[in-house]
Amino acid sequence: MSAPVPTSHPKGFWFIFFGELAERCSFYGMRGLLAMYLIHVFGKTKGEASEVVHLYMAGCFATGLIGGFIADRFLGKYWTIVAFSVPYVIGQLLIGQSNETLVYVALVILAFGSGVIKPNISTLMGMTYDQQRPGQDQLRTRAFGYFYMAINVGSLLSYQICPLLRDYFGQVDPKTGLPATPESARAGYLAGFLFPAVLMAVALVLFAAGRKHYAVENVEANRAADDAGAEGKWKVAGRLAGLFALVMFFWVVFDQKTTVWIYFAADYLDTQFTTPFAVGGRTEWRLPPESIMSANPLLIICFVPLLNLLFGRLAAKGYRIRPTDKITAGFLLTAAATALHAAAGWIATNPDGSIAKVSILWQLAAYVVLTLGEVLISVTGLELAYTAAPRSMKSFITALWFVPIFFANLLSSQLAKAYPDTAHLAPFVSVVGGLIGTDRGLADATRPAYQFPTAQGYFLMLTVLVLVVTAAFVLVARRFNRTQPGEPAA
Prior knowledge:
Elements (H helix, E strand, L loop, with lengths): L10 H32 L3 H17 L1 H31 L5 H33 L4 H33 L12 H28 L9 H10 L1 H25 L5 H9 E2 L1 E8 L2 E5 L8 H22 L6 H26 L9 E2 L1 H28 L5 H22 L10 H11 L17 H29 L8
Helix pairs in contact: 1-2, 1-4, 1-5, 1-6, 2-4, 2-13, 3-4, 3-6, 3-7, 3-13, 4-5, 4-13, 5-6, 5-10, 5-12, 8-11, 8-12, 8-13, 8-15, 10-12, 11-12, 11-15, 12-13
């Protein structure tokens, strides 16, 4: 009689959890500073900075397919992660050197490091559960939720610490948010980028320390299985690709929180506050617009355990909520997040075109609904990619889940240029304005003094886009669900 399968998380999970926490802290800390770094130190416009940031992020997710292929057929997950972590640390050290050529070299290195690691770490975790906790599907589901929570604990820390280091060493004026001098700007960003570099080194040490507790890999068996049944496995990939392609539009909205949402916060939100007592001789403070992003990981940390509990209770009572149902709900919440920004932009803009800054609560409310959407889409999709993938293609299929993020950021690299360039939006907001019957003036390239707010037009465009995509996703999901076990064949 075989021994019962333990119901606790395997030891390897904790090395992966804390290693991923440190690596994501490194990734998000650098990314959160990048747009303003390009503006303050290299004199880029908002549109140019957005393009660089989104192209870098696209590169991070494009290289995931390379990482998945290398791990599945050659090195295995563990050694692929270790091999690409070393240049990742070097890239983090290079980026803060205030040399534009070095910045672009560093971004290429970082794109390969981050992209190759990402699909393999979650796949190695899933394999560890399959080998060491067979049949414990709910335990594995909770592990994917907690893994995603580790990502967001890391980003929460970095979104707070990196801007504070930048502002302290850069001698940033608390009222204007601008560095005191070009020299202090460079010093501030160097300090901000060194923190992610140290954390990436810590992540590598933590991950390597847990090697003996991870799943045993057999790359030769993977290659043989892949070669023997390639046709059926690519059919699985094709079915998943239809779903994943539409999820791209969620990432179009979500990843703009590192560019357009920061600009919106700086232009439209009142981020000044006063403390009742002096700290360092000061009572007036300004919240850096990048720091508002920390609301997202903080909410993730709250929502993941709650939703794990909710869906676990529903499953115990026999209620089956399909992955596609969760993703559909996530799309609707994403549309609500962009609609809140459109409403805030409308309210903040006076009839004469001037801006009367509104409460930061508008963007915080948008983060609440966006984060709920993120949990329902991203955590669900990550596990779906792992569980639906054939054994010999798990890293590659997991990487396929990240491909839409590549295309989303390619699209955003151009789309974000429309904020705040109103000429890009004139045809769209003219049509939408006519449909809703607004009398505040429409975006018209022939009317230079039109009153339709730029932020409102931009976020209204995104809201309509997400709603249209949601309708398309429902149709594709119905077809996908009919191919899944337990679904009716009608």
